[in-house]
Design a protein that fits this description.
The complex is a heterodimer of chains A (614) and B (340). Chain A is an alpha/beta fold and 614 residues long. Chain A is built from eleven helices and 35 strands. Chain A is 17% helix and 31% strand. Chain B has helices spanning 15-26, 57-77, 95-110, 132-145, 185-189, 248-254, 300-311, 317-325; strands spanning 3-11, 31-34, 83-91, 116-117, 121-130, 149-151, 157-160, 166-170, 173-182, 200-210, 220-223, 228-232, 238-243, 264-275, 281-284, 290-294. Chain B is of the alpha/beta class. The chains are: A alpha/beta (614), B alpha/beta (340). The interface between A and B is large, with 64 and 72 residues.
Chain lengths: 614, 340
């Protein structure tokens, strides 16, 4: 649903121009939206929240898990990055069911396997170059670009999303920090005004090779969008790729209507979208209360906020209580099921495995911990290590530096500083200490680990991306599947991967490389040697070279063992071997000491008598 | 400080190292195994296959005796399903490779095997294969029952004293071992360069898991001249092992029939050892009490019982002769398996 144009807290959608409505056709159905929408947000706003089914399980649409679509005259494009265009006609790519789950709610896809993005094997159509490439347009990436550009370096900053600013606004300021909105908007405006900076949104890096980074861009000109692969040549790279919110693991955790707190925030803030007018919030962190309060202010009915922590303390908890929101604590989600009107969600008390509370809702907003997003770091050759409950970057790369929450920093100030430090590190300049200020545990209850249901009571996914790895009902994870870094982190929490193996598994699975493309490679031709080295010593010193025949037709294959016609025939007693075929017979090398002129040659067809050709 | 004494300290996390340790312990020796278990999600770095890329009858002789021993051992451990027959195709690209294949086929024929020969490939049916992941628990129990102490490599430090002695420091104090056997490439690679036999060269080993592809006619396909081995798993995905870094992508892709593109699910990189002459290396190194085994390739596990007997002086004359012939101190001409 679309939130009202006058929604509080700018939850009307800061990316939208409500004065410019638009309409496009997708898979034959008409979808309405506004200028500024992506195809995905327009779909979600008009009630299409289902990608399709995996087996019998319906799967929700969301950022990072949505089908590609083909425009009438363009290449396949991801709908979460594609600007909606008035009058456009699109068709989603992939197998679809005739009878759709959820009717108009679903795109009706039959999801059966992990798919390769069509551009991942493509070659670059264009080349850009700069002194520095910054990947990620959050506070750390913007700060890195700013400090580098200010010192005269040419900078290209890319972000896969259609907008810049990262996730900082979700968290808000800490203490007397400057507001993330104010800070990021100011940085963006400053960078836009610098001639040595290029800001490329809708641009996703997918391959590194030395100083060359391949990216997939969506470029929109005159209302028409197309995708292209561009090679960006930059000898130094800052990866400010942020952190990914982890998915709580419980049965039904990717049903339509379930969304993470960070995604729910961006949908509302950027696009004025909420999945339903009634929402239930499941959290283990204080920031979900902040989101729930803002949604409540826009008129969304917050059914309840249920916290996995017991009696958490936070200013946001106090505000929620003061606002009259219904709160629960010490419970985690156990199962979610689809009902006629939305979802039914069962919660268990911490330390138990039975449902204690069951609530109906339109949408379920779930909160999990944060895992530094290190896929590109690993793709560039970086290492990781397991540290208490997450994977962290390890090792050093000469031309690549991490920054921001990808490096584990939490506060806005520290993320910004780390962007500057990353640039200093890459350009060999003095490095300043980074101060990461957090609110003490005596003031606010720290986050709890990402909730994990104690048993599998239905289909439960380990992460929210496209890998679609499901929690096994028993035993180990299936080996033949891609694992994201989030899948690995969840697997460790569930005991599916040993903690001391997590880094190695993540490095193997997290940076598998691009798809294989056809190759006709063959080794350099090598002729057969007259006397192969592997025969050395087998038949004594100075073996005789004999031409053996059986008749005037039969040919002996190289490798056939030669025996005396009197002795037993096993490989250890062979007195010679055929080294070359001849017409007829074959050339053999035979022990010099062999006192016979009658032989048996063991051919593939069986033993054959042989004599020396006179 | 306490000193714990063992007859043998076996370094290695592979089934070969584990079974070598267990066989030694079953002969009454005090054995320490320095190795760890990998999570099932880690990529395999070898295919345990009773098919050496070898032409010399001595190698096949020892192998053919080892195969029923390993099968019986796994059965006795309670892991009979970890020994499975597999079909293998070996492709050759050059005339030298085809000549090698001819010699390999005829040697195998002499041992009762019946490989089929095509112009550019050999087909091997019912080759014994150890599915180590199915046997890991049972092997661990078997080692424990045999009295083998297992410790993680991170808990042990190997050093080399001025007195030419090999020293071990473990989690509970110093360890004295009559012989330290480096039964895994990773352990040999950690040796100081002057202790590593010059015949062994370190090569990058890339292991890649690709998404489900069309079924192969044989689930295992080896390309010795491209340095590529493929294993199609039950779910259709394919594990590829590529030795060496030159033209890696091109060599890897050349081994697949398509259709392309093929998604990669995982890639791991490590180093392994290859002998310059393609033959195994078995014997003492230039430091007292240090012994290495390398270059046995996919077939290593099937040589473990014979090597255990060799180390305890109970090998058959044929086994003893074969092991001694591969000693790094001996001339290599009589054991080389070099193509040309």
């Amino acid at each position: 649903m679309r939130l009202p144009a006058d929604a509080a807290r700018e939850f009307s959608g800061i990316e939208l121009d409500r004065n410019k409505p638009l309409r496009f056709v997708l898979d034959g159905r008409s979808i309405e939206g506004f200028a500024g929408d992506t195809v995905l947000t327009a779909l979600l706003a008009t009630g299409t929240d289902t990608f399709g089914t995996l087996g019998d399980a319906p799967l929700g649409l969301g950022e990072g898990f949505a089908p590609l679509i083909a425009s009438r005259n363009g290449t396949p494009l991801p709908i979460d990055r594609l600007p909606a265009a008035d009058g456009a006609g699109y068709a989603t790519i992939g197998p679809r069911k005739k009878k759709l789950f959820g009717g108009v709610r679903s795109l009706g896809h039959r999801i059966d396997e992990h798919r390769i993005p069509v551009w991942s094997g493509a070659t670059a159509e264009d080349t850009l170059s700069a002194d520095l490439l910054v990947v990620g347009g959050g506070i750390a990436g913007l700060s890195a670009a700013d400090v580098a550009a200010t010192s005269g370096k040419s900078v290209i900053l890319i972000d896969r999303r259609p907008w810049l600013g990262g996730d900082a606004r979700y968290f808000g300021p800490v203490g007397d920090e400057e507001s993330p909105a104010t800070l990021t908007v100011a940085l963006i405006e400053r960078l836009k005004g610098l001639p040595n900076v290029q800001l490329l949104t809708n641009t996703e890096a997918f391959s590194f090779s030395g100083a060359s980074t391949l990216v997939h861009r969506i470029v929109t000109e005159a209302g028409s969008s197309r995708g292209s692969v561009v090679a960006i040549t930059a000898p130094r790279i800052v990866l400010a790729t942020g952190s990914a919110q982890r998915l709580p693991v419980f049965a039904g955790n990717r049903l339509p209507g379930i969304v993470s707190t960070v995604s729910a925030y961006h949908l509302a803030k950027r696009y004025g979208v909420c999945l339903a007018p009634i929402a239930l919030v499941s959290t283990q962190s204080n920031y979900a209360y902040r989101l729930a309060l803002r949604l409540h202010d826009t008129g969304i009915a917050i059914r309840r906020i249920i916290d996995a922590r017991i009696n958490p303390q936070s200013r946001f908890v106090d505000f929620a209580k003061a606002s009259g929101l219904n709160l629960g604590s010490g419970q985690f989600p156990l199962t979610a099921t689809v009902t006629r009107h939305g979802l039914s969600v069962a919660f268990a008390n911490v330390g138990t495995s039975n449902a204690a509370t069951t609530l109906d809702t339109g949408a379920l907003i779930v909160s999990g911990g944060f895992q530094p997003e290190l896929a590109l770091w690993m793709l560039a050759g970086g290492s990781v290590r397991w540290s208490s409950d997450r994977l962290e970057a390890a090792g050093h790369l000469d031309h690549v530096a991490l920054a921001g929450s990808a490096l584990g920093y939490k506060s806005l100030q520290a993320c910004g500083q780390s962007g500057k430090v990353a640039v200093a590190q890459l350009f060999g300049e003095p490095i300043h200490l980074i101060e990461d200020v957090e609110i003490g545990a005596s003031f606010e209850t720290p986050d709890a680990p990402t909730p994990m249901a104690p048993a599998t009571l239905g289909t439960a996914f380990l992460d929210s991306g496209a890998s679609l790895v499901r929690r096994p009902t028993s035993g180990a994870l299936a080996g033949g599947q891609a694992l994201t870094i989030g899948d690995v982190t969840a697997s460790v929490a569930l005991g599916l991967i040993a903690a001391n193996d997590a880094a190695a598994v993540a490095e193997e699975r997290g940076a598998p490389g691009g798809p294989l493309v056809a190759s006709s490679w063959t080794p350099v031709p090598k002729p057969a040697p007259e006397f192969p080295p592997y025969l050395a010593g087998r038949f004594g010193k100075d073996p005789r070279r004999l031409h053996l025949i059986v008749d005037d037709k039969c040919q002996f294959e190289p490798g056939a063992l030669v025996y005396s016609n009197l002795g037993k025939r096993d490989a250890m007693t062979a007195i010679g071997i055929i080294v070359a075929a001849a017409e007829p017979g074959g050339t053999a090398i035979v022990q010099a000491s062999a006192d016979t002129d009658r032989f048996v040659v063991e051919t593939i067809q069986g033993p054959s008598p042989a004599r020396i050709k006179s | 400080m306490a000193i714990t004494t063992y007859d043998f300290a076996i370094f290695g996390s592979t089934p070969f190292a584990a079974i070598l340790a267990g066989c030694l312990a079953r002969q009454g020796k005090r054995v320490l195994r320095v190795g760890s278990r990998a999570s099932p999600q880690r990529l395999l770095r070898r295919i345990d296959l009773a098919l050496p890329i070898a032409t010399r009858p001595g190698t096949w002789d020892v192998l053919m005796r080892g195969v029923p021993e390993i099968r019986a051992l796994l059965q006795a451990m309670g892991a009979p399903d970890s020994f499975v027959p597999a079909s293998v195709r070996i492709d050759h690209d050059t005339e030298a490779g085809r000549a090698f294949a001819g010699h390999m086929v005829h040697t195998a024929l002499a041992f009762g095997l019946k490989p089929a020969r095509r112009r550019n490939s050999m087909l091997w049916r019912s080759v014994g294969m150890v599915r180590a992941e199915r046997a890991e628990d049972k092997i661990a129990d078997w080692l424990a029952a045999a009295g083998v102490r297992s410790i993680d490599p991170h808990e042990v430090r190997l050093s080399f004293g001025a007195s030419d002695a090999t020293l071990l420091a473990g989690p509970d104090g110093d360890i004295a071992a009559g012989l330290v056997v480096l039964a895994e490439d990773a352990a040999i690679l950690e040796l100081p360069a002057d202790l590593r036999p010059s015949i062994l060269q370190s090569e990058e080993l890339t292991t890649t898991l690709v998404a489900k592809v069309r079924p192969f006619s044989e689930p295992i396909v080896l390309f010795p001249e491209r340095g590529v081995s493929l294993l199609q798993r039950d779910d259709g995905s394919v594990l590829a092992l590529v030795s060496g870094s030159a033209d890696l992508e091109a060599r890897l892709a050349s081994a697949f029939p398509g259709p392309f593109p093929i998604a990669r699910l995982a890639t791991g990189r490590t180093h392994h050892l290859e002998s310059i002459d393609g033959a195994p290396l078995i014997g003492a190194l230039g430091h007292a009490g240090l012994f290495a085994v390398a270059g046995l390739g996919n077939a290593a596990v099937f040589f473990a019982p014979a090597l255990a007997r060799h180390l305890t002086g109970t090998a058959t004359p044929a086994e003893a002769e074969w092991c001694s012939a591969h000693d790094p101190a001996r001339p290599r001409d009589d054991v080389t398996e070099a193509l040309s």
